[in-house]
Write a structure and sequence with these properties.
alpha+beta; five-stranded mixed β-sheet
Amino acid sequence: MPQANATSNMFEPKVFLSMVQALEPDRGLYLYNSVRKDTTIYPYAEWTEKRGAFSELAEYNVPNSKANLVDRGPSGETVKTAALAYIREGDRFTPTATKYIKDINAGNDAALVPAEKIIADQVKYVNDRVNNRIEWSLWQAIQGGFTYTGPATGTFTVDYNFRPAHKVTLGTSDQWTGTPTTKSIIDSIRTMKQMIRKDGGVDVNEVILTSATMDLLINAWRNAVIDGPRPLTDEQINLYYATGELKGFMGIETWKTIDQYYDVRNADGQTVEVKPYLDHGTVVFMNRSANNALSYVTGPTADYDAPNGHIGRFGKNWLDKDPSGYSFLVEEYGLPVIDRPDQFGTLKVASSTWVNDQGWRN
C-alpha cells in the first residue's frame, strides 16, 4: 500500500486511488481469487456463447475464389451481451481520522502513521464489501444466474441459460437425506458427469458443496443399501476429514467443501439474516478451466472524477462542508461471464426440510 508522507498526502486523488487498487481481496474468496479477469471499454459485456460438444468443419474451396462465408450452424454459437452491474459504496471517515488529518495539515508528521491505519481500515471495509458482492455474483453464476433487488436498482435478473437438464433435483427416494442405495447415489453423480461430457465436451474436474452436504453424502453412503460397487473408500473419507477435500471419488479430481455466508440487514434495520453463497443440499458440478468457461469482466468507471479511460476499480475522496469532514467511495462496473454454460450443472440432493434445518454459524 502506498505510504503517506509529508509531501504526498493520502487524500491526493492519485495516492488515494493507488491505495484502493493496492488492497488485496481476502483469501477466503474462492472464486474471485481464482477466476480469469477480463476488461472491456464498454459498460456492457459481450461474449460468444458456445453449445455442443461437436465441431463444425470448414468447406473445401478452389484457389483464387471468394472465401466461403461461414454460416453459424447447429453448434448454437450465439453472441450475447449484457449490461455490467454497477457497485458504488462509500462512507464518511471517523472523527478520529478527521482529527489526524487536521494534525497532519498543521505539520504534525507523527499523525501520519495512525491516520493511515484508520483510513486504510475504513477503505478496506468498503472495498471488501465490493469484493464480497462480486464473489456472491460468481457463485450465483455457476448455479445458472441470479435475481437481485435493491433500493437503487429495483429488480434485475441475470440468466446464464443453463439447460433444464443441467439443473437436476433428485426424487424423494434418491435424496441423500433419505435411504438411497449405493446404485442411486452413483447413478445420480454419473448422470451429471455424462451430461456435461456430452453437452459440453469436457470432463467434470471440480465439485463444490457445503461441508454439511458432504457429511450427508458420506453418511448416506455408509448407511446405504449395498447393491453395487463402492467407489468411496475409507482412505478417501479420512483424507477428506484431514484436508476438507475429497479426491478421486467417481473419477472426479476434486470435491471441495465451501462454507461461505454473508449477512443481510432486515427491513427493521436491526436484525440480520444469514445468506449462503451456496445452499446446503446443492452440489455444483463443473469444469470452469477448460475453454476459459468462467470469467469476470470489468468495464469503465462511471464516475466523472476518474481519469479519462479508467477501467476497473475506482476510489475517490472529498471534503464535505456540512457536516464537515472527509468522505470516500469505491466503485466498479463488472459482471461474471459464462460462455460455456454446458460445462456446469447443479444437483439438488436433499429435502427442503433438511436444508431449512441447517445453520450457518453452528
